[in-house]
Specification:
Layout lengths: L1 E4 L2 E9 L16 E8 L9 H15 L5 E4 L6 H9 L3 E8 L2 E9 H25 L1
Parallel strand pairs: 3-4
Antiparallel strand pairs: 1-2, 2-3, 4-6, 5-6
Length: 136
């Protein structure tokens, strides 16, 4: 999928079924997993929250499939922003992988954690509306 801002392509989102992926670059994985990859091409769009938004959209797409129990995210080890995003999502670190000269960190986001996060977000929005109504 192509991500756009104001009609301009800024990045790419990919959902991979690791059990069916030909190269098995993450090793043998169960069929209830998905791997997400997010790239932002133009540096002008990095650090502005677009990657975070793209990650949330692609996670929603993955978990819309009831057969998906977890998502793997495998940023390059030096990518501190993506690793921070993974921690914010309450992903847990699975392992470090080395691909030739690149080291990646594999994180796992469980469906139950994602669903709890959505529920908490909804409750917070309702509470904010109630608080706003009281202050008027």
């Amino acid at each position: 999928m192509i991500a756009e801002v104001a009609g301009l392509p800024i990045g790419f989102l990919q959902i991979i079924e690791p059990a069916r992926e030909e190269n098995h670059y993450l090793g043998q994985r169960a069929s209830d997993l998905r791997v997400i990859d997010i790239w932002i091409g133009n540096e002008a769009y990095i650090g502005r929250g677009f990657g975070k938004k793209m990650g949330e959209v692609v996670a929603r797409l993955c978990f819309a499939d009831k057969m998906v129990n977890a998502i793997l995210i495998d940023p390059m080890a030096p990518n501190k922003k993506t690793r921070s995003f993974c921690k914010e999502l309450v992903c847990h670190l699975v392992e470090y992988l080395h691909f030739s000269i690149v080291e990646c960190v594999v994180y796992r986001l469980e469906r139950s954690v994602w669903m709890n996060r959505l529920l908490i977000t909804k409750i917070c929005r309702i509470f904010q509306k109630i608080t706003l109504c009281r202050s008027i």
